[in-house]
Amino acid sequence: MKRYKILEYIFEIEDNVDVIGVEMGRATMNITTDHGVLVRKPCRQCKKLLPLEEFYARKSPCRRCHRVAVKRWRKNNPERDKAHKKVSNHNLRQKQRLAQARIQQKEAVQGGSGRDGLPPLL
Fold first, then answer.
1. Angle, nearest 10°, between helix axes 78-110 and 63-76?
2. Of 56, 58, 99, 105, which sits with the fewest C-beta atoms within 10 Å of its C-beta?
3. Is position 82 within any domain?
4. pLDDT digit string, tens, across residues 65-102
5. Predicted pLDDT at 119
């Protein structure tokens, strides 16, 4: 793997690929190689140029840096994390109960049978 540095960002590329040029966009860098154009986005925390798949939508840190930050926050804020999880679990259970009620209501309207006269699939 070859390592390149563009501004303060580092990216790696296979040995058999040569970089021809770099074009800066607002949020991405288009790296022209002899095999085509690679679109990379810089992570502001780890200073690496990574493929767009390595990012959550419009987030500046990459997925790995984001996970590290979340773990650090959870470790430093255990009470707030516990409260957040409690609310999230409550909301999830409430959504599941509503979905189950809709299914039961739909079955009651259908009279326990599907459109073709067969019992409904579970």
1. 110
2. 58
3. yes
4. 999 999 999 999 999 999 988 888 888 899 999 999 99
5. 61
27-48: per-residue pLDDT in tens?
Answer: 677 777 777 777 888 888 888 8
DSSP string, the chain: -EEEEETTEEEEE-TT--EEEEEE-SS-EEEEETTEEEEEEE-TTT-BEEEGGGB-TT-SSBHHHHHHHHHHHHHH-HHHHHHHHHHHHHHHHHHHHHHHHHHHHHHHHHTT--TTSSPPP-
Cα separation, 117 vs 84, in Å, equals 46
Instruction: Give how many domains the chain has, as a whole number.
Output: 2
Round to whole Å and give the CA distance between 33 and 17: 7
Same domain, 45 and 83: no
